[in-house]
Specification:
2 copies of one chain form a homodimer. Chain A is of the alpha+beta class and 424 residues long. Chain A has 7 helices and 20 strands. In chain A, the strands form 6 sheets. In chain A, strands 2, 3, 5, 6, 15 and 16 form a 6-stranded antiparallel beta sheet that branches. In chain A, helix 6 crosses helix 7. The longest helix of chain A has 23 residues. The radius of gyration of chain A is 24 Å and the shape is globular. At the A-B interface, strand 4, helix 3, helix 4, strand 10 and strand 11 of A face strand 4, helix 3, helix 4, strand 10 and strand 11 of B. Strand 4 of chain A pairs antiparallel with strand 10 of chain B, so a sheet runs across the interface.
Chain lengths: 424, 424
């Protein structure tokens, strides 16, 4: 199905200021369209987090008090309806803010995070030490928990709560469909890239590509899915087998020996075909045609609470995970120039564009502008989207190499990582 | 517990011949000892695989007919008794041979493996084509299966069958304990390294380290273990919680908020401590002290069918996997010199020796011998073992840096990857 958005959206109105001498004009989001509907959604925000311990209910300025600011970009690739992507673009950063509230003081204190907090939030100055007293237990060692891992935990739980909210509200508010979510949080000098789905983030630094995410598809998550089907066979409803076969088995092949692999295997072996092997495999197909339960091609994301197997009442949601994988990039560890960028794109971009091609486009477009011209990043996002879309020619949208352009929604964020000090 | 073997074992009697111009004297296995018992076992073999289709029951010469030869090295680090390691060292390669029997013709045929085989093995010349006839099914694509992945599948299934055999025979034959298994199969120009446990294999090529395995410990497999505990809580027997905490919780801390993470999280977050959180965590501790169910420090291997939680009847085996991860190295893709080696070691080596230190020892020892002196590899294995063991000084076994030597069994295989053509 070819659904390509008509929306051309540039978030230039978001005047984000970075604290570390980075570019002022940070954001270019562009959706290039071939058709009327675009299920992608995007969001960028500066979010202020007030600690739970603040007595006053009123929000304080970031510069004063103990609050924290984070910068936020989210890209949501919807499917089976735009409701989930739209809801996530409105609310996910609020869930992240809520999760960070407990951490406002802890993250600004260089000492290791307290392992235990008092039961009632709001008691100031009672964070650590005293709550760890008592005799040393038999398991005496303590695990070191980093500040980074608290932010990662906050983002992970925010994704889960967002997903739960979609479940609660799906009847009243028409939260139809689901969405992949790719989110960037910039907090206290570090960039957290959280990905649940098949969008992708890369950093292009000094012309080199640094992957910042992995895709979650029926192929990359095959063993997790098969293990779940094996441990909870009731989820397969007598319609599916947790085994994978390299092609559909024909009933007349019963008794022959077919290649298969189970949840423990990465290699293939032959097994005698039995009656239950004629069920449809839980995971089948390759590349863009890979599917879970013959239905969905991504295995992580938000929503999809109503998604059922075609012509069946079997729910697919139990096999989908709402949890992102979070990668951390310490901006303070490297010198960045104005041509260093973080690029987020939905699969519409990456299906037809390699990481290296994106890096080449970054070089080509940015070098055509002055380093301090903020419109260069919007031009880059536009070039990436239009390059993946192609132009109408020979009865189709064609790329510069004459291959077919992406038939999917295409959305791209370009986030500059460096820039002249005058931007600070 | 410090159990270090007294056994000094050099497998120089194994005169392995490589087919591709590699070294004739291929093997040095050495166990250096501080005490009487050594639970490590080692094995190296040349194994001939006769295809199932052979009519004659007698084995044929490798040079004639359709049989296959593979070269095999296995390192088995036993725990809680030496029975499992001893049994694996005698039998695992036979299980691999058995699994490869179906593949003898397929692996020697450059065309893609047939997806389906006839039901009765032994009918010659009926491997492919005809068995794939019939109408194209609705899921029409076929997955490409490589020859490599068939060998990987064969090794994986051989590990599983070895583990099952230990389960059947554990009462009659005293197969006490369990073992990590690190196995190398050299077949048709490729090196397959299969690891289940915390042993490690590296290639040192041109002085550089190429990791050939990953360790499987409560820390590296935390999420798999927690997921199993979450999905099958009966395996935790009201004694354990699938949640991880950074330290043991005290009963008086009920109601406070403690850092935790579950099977979905890589980060940490705070949760209110409830009664069931006072159970012991399924996974606890760090580094060499990490444990599953407070008992075992490795999460993959063979055996352990009788292993129970201390002072309990709760079995631990359901959480342990017998499946190895298999990495493939194509020997024909690189030029190898006589100083290029594959080093296998049990954790006794790696606990006190880094990959780079091993590479430095490879350089130091091998450069002291003529390139065509086969005893250089035995000397290298010996140097690695003795270097990790240390020498008695200051009331302990000390390394050259005065740190304590390994308190564990130490076993090392050195397998040369290149050599003068005259060895072929």
């Amino acid at each position: 199905m070819t659904i390509v958005g008509f929306l051309f959206r540039s978030c230039q109105e978001s005047q984000l200021f970075w604290r570390h001498g980075l570019a002022r004009e940070t954001v270019g989001v562009i959706n290039a369209g071939k058709s009327r509907h675009n299920e992608d959604q995007a969001c960028c925000e500066v979010v202020y987090v007030e600690g739970r311990r603040s007595v006053s209910g009123a929000p304080r300025e970031p510069s004063r008090g103990q609050g924290l600011c984070f910068y936020y970009w989210g890209l949501f690739d919807g499917h089976a309806g735009g409701g989930a992507a739209e809801m996530a673009s409105r609310l996910l950063h609020r869930h992240i803010r809520e999760q960070l509230k407990d951490l406002v003081e802890i993250l600004q204190d260089p000492s290791p995070p307290p392992l235990c907090l008092p039961s009632i939030p709001g008691a100031p100055g009672s964070l650590d030490g005293p709550h760890l007293v008592g005799p040393q237990p038999s398991w005496s060692s303590q695990k070191e928990v980093t500040h980074d891992s608290l932010v990662i935990g906050a983002i992970e739980n925010a994704f889960q709560l967002m997903d739960e909210q979609m479940a609660w509200e799906r009847h009243g508010h028409q939260v139809e469909g689901g969405c992949c979510a790719l989110v960037v949080v910039y907090l206290l000098g570090k960039v957290y890239v959280a990905n649940a789905g098949d969008s992708r983030a890369i950093i292009v630094r000094n012309g080199e590509v640094i992957p910042m995410s992995r895709e979650f598809t029926p192929e990359t998550e095959r063993q997790r899915l098969q293990l779940l089907g094996f441990l909870k066979p009731e989820l397969l409803g007598n319609e599916f087998t947790h085994l994978e076969f390299p092609r559909r088995i024909q009933p007349k092949e019963l008794g022959q020996r077919m290649l298969y692999r189970d949840q423990n295997m990465t290699g293939w072996a032959y097994k005698k075909i039995e009656l239950e092997d004629l069920r449809f495999p839980l995971v089948c197909g390759e590349g863009k045609k890979a599917r879970v339960m013959a239905t969905i091609g991504v295995t992580r994301g938000l929503g999809d609470h109503n998604l059922k197997v075609c012509s069946s009442t079997l729910p697919i949601k139990p096999f989908l995970s709402c949890f992102p994988e979070v990668q951390v990039y310490d901006l303070t560890q490297y010198e960045h120039c104005p041509d260093d960028v973080l690029v987020l794109g939905t699969d519409g971009l990456w299906d037809v564009t390699s990481d290296c091609e994106v890096a080449a486009t970054v070089d080509r477009v940015l070098s055509a502008y002055e380093p301090n011209d903020p419109s260069r990043y919007t031009a880059l996002a536009q070039a990436l989207v239009l390059g993946a879309r192609g132009i109408p020619r020979d009865r189709g949208w064609r790329l510069s190499n004459n291959k077919l352009g992406s038939g999917d929604d295409i959305s791209v964020f370009v986030i500059p990582l460096g820039g002249p000090g005058s931007y600070s």
